[in-house]
Amino acid sequence: MNYDEIIGKTAHSIPPSGIRRFFGIVEEDPDAISLGVGEPDFVTPWEIRDAAIKSLQKGYTAYTSNSGLKRLREEISEYLFSRFNAKYSPDEVMVTIGASEAIDLSLRALLNAGEEVLVPDPSYVSYCPAIALAGGVAVPVACSPENGLKPTPQAVEAAITKKTKAVILPYPNNPTGAVLNKAELEAICAVIKKHNLIAISDEIYAELTYSGRHVSVAALDGMAERTVLISGFSKAFAMTGWRVGYVCAPAEILGAMLKIHQYTIMCAPTMSQYAALAALVTGKESGFAAVEEMRDKYDMRRRFVVNAFNEMGLQCSEPSGAFYAFPSVKSLGLTGEQFAEQLLREKHVAVVPGDAFGAAGKEHVRCSYATGMAQLSEAMKRIGEFVASRK
Ligand SMILES: Cc1ncc(COP(=O)(O)O)c(C=O)c1O
User: Fold this and answer.
1) Positive or negative CA dihedral for 156, 120, 227, 298?
2) At what angle do helices 373-389 and 289-311 cross, to 10 degrees?
3) Which of 96, 103, 121, 124 gets mutated to test ligand 1 (max ligand atoms within 8 A of its CB)?
4) Does residue 113 contact residue 164 with C-beta atoms inside 8 Å?
């Protein structure tokens, strides 16, 4: 059988995720330390796990409504308003299988064949494939280190054509850790409004910002009606394996997404929805103490990692959010890909080549600091030795 001809052209042409590339090698190497995964090393707080166990004990094992438990949607609505001033009624909230499903749904609901979506480059690996799978065309907007790896309003406007439908705003950013402040977001949103586009704002790292409170695109003047807000529980509450997230949008857009979700998913896992509900209810009661505690630990590791990179002579701008450092390896005369391959082979430390996140990341590597301090300091020691050997 010639499977190349059997498999649909779009699925055939999208590349596998560059993040997972080295996983096989890492799993088989007992000496390897992975800074590759974008996943909290913390276990989900006990009260959240306990709520899921209790939901099972009570026999809550059936489907929920397609949009998710009403109580959960009410809590999400309240949470978004109290934490980030984003105003959504529970009817404008849908619970999804992680932010991942929300990204896919928003693109499939919005795009007609051939319509373009602007994607800051570098950014999270799933946007471009999801755009292609929805029949659209991803248009990268390069973000230069001179501008703190952030898109400028001029660069966004220059990339707009008659076919442009939406702009992805992925802040805090994976892989760069860049955060856009209110004025920077407003300047880009002015372009979005001027050209009558939709903002798809992936705010999954909203709780992980290290200088000031996260600014939600949905809370900016005149943006709620043209914003699809995506978020979830994976990062802030250390709940990656529970597969639960959510999307908020004006009722008409959400209705279109709900149809796709109904036919393809039915509902997010019931047990996970009860866990997510507990995350918000217990979080509210404690002032989100568990979230703040994890964030403080990430912050400590962040400063350690950034200092270590700068001390070994690799330029690394300070990430203001998420849990990634994105140093440049250009000074060593290596591409990110070469650096990652050689580092893994010689020092058994896995990092991700920056071009997995777009061409603009070619001279960088992404290092996740969602790893315990002992592992992190050993990894930075080995990276330091590797860098020294290349000078
Ligand atoms: C920017 C960004 N968006 C979405 C996701 C997917 O998150 P979830 O686990 O909620 O599907 C990730 C995961 O790494 C991410 O980094």
Assistant:
1) negative
2) 20
3) 124
4) no
Q: Does domain 62-285 have CATH number 3.40.640.10?
A: yes
Atom of ligand 1 nearest to the CA of 205: 1
Q: Which residues line ligand 1 (CB under 6 A)?
A: 38, 98-100, 124, 170, 174, 202, 204, 232, 234, 240, 245
Residue 18 CA, ligand 1 centroid: distance in Å: 15
CA distances from 271 to 74, 79, 316 (A): 17, 20, 41
What are the structural domain ranges in the chain? Answer: 9-44+290-389, 62-285
Q: How far, in Å, is the centroid of ligand 1 from the Cα of 2?
A: 34
The confidence score (pLDDT) of residue 390 equals: 86
Torsion angles phi and psi, residue 200, rounded to 5: -105, 105
Rg (C-alpha) for the chain, rounded Å, is 21
| DSSP sequence for 116-181 | EEEEEES--TTHHHHHHHTT-EEEEEE--GGGTT---HHHHHHH--TTEEEEEE--S-TTT-----
Question: How far apart, in whole angstroms, are the C-alpha atoms of residue 245 and residue 268?
Answer: 9
126: CA distance to ligand 1 center in Å?
9
Give me the pLDDT at residue 190, please. 98
Distance CA(55)–CA(274), nearest Å, equals 7
Q: How far apart are CA 364 and CA 379, in angstroms?
A: 17
Q: Quote the longest CA-to-CA distance of the chain.
A: 62
Looking at residue 107, its pLDDT comes to 98
CA 356 to centroid of ligand 1, rounded, Å: 15
Half-sphere exposure of 58 toward its Cβ, with a 13 Å CA cutoff? 11
Residue with tokens 């099972």: 56
What contacts 24+ positions apart, CB below 8 Å, involve 19-25?
A: 19/125, 19/352, 19/356, 21/352, 21/356, 22/340, 22/344, 22/350, 22/352, 23/350, 25/344, 25/350
**In terms of Cα–Cα distance, which of 177, 198, 123, 184 is closest to 154?**
184
Low-confidence ranges of the chain (pLDDT < 70): 20
Nearest-angstrom CA–CA distance, 312 and 388? 8
pLDDT, position 224:
97
Whether 248 and 223 have beta carbons less than 8 Å apart is answered as: no
Q: What pLDDT, on the 0 to 100 scale, is given for residue 211?
A: 87
* CATH fold of 9-44+290-389: Aspartate Aminotransferase, domain 1 (3.90.1150)
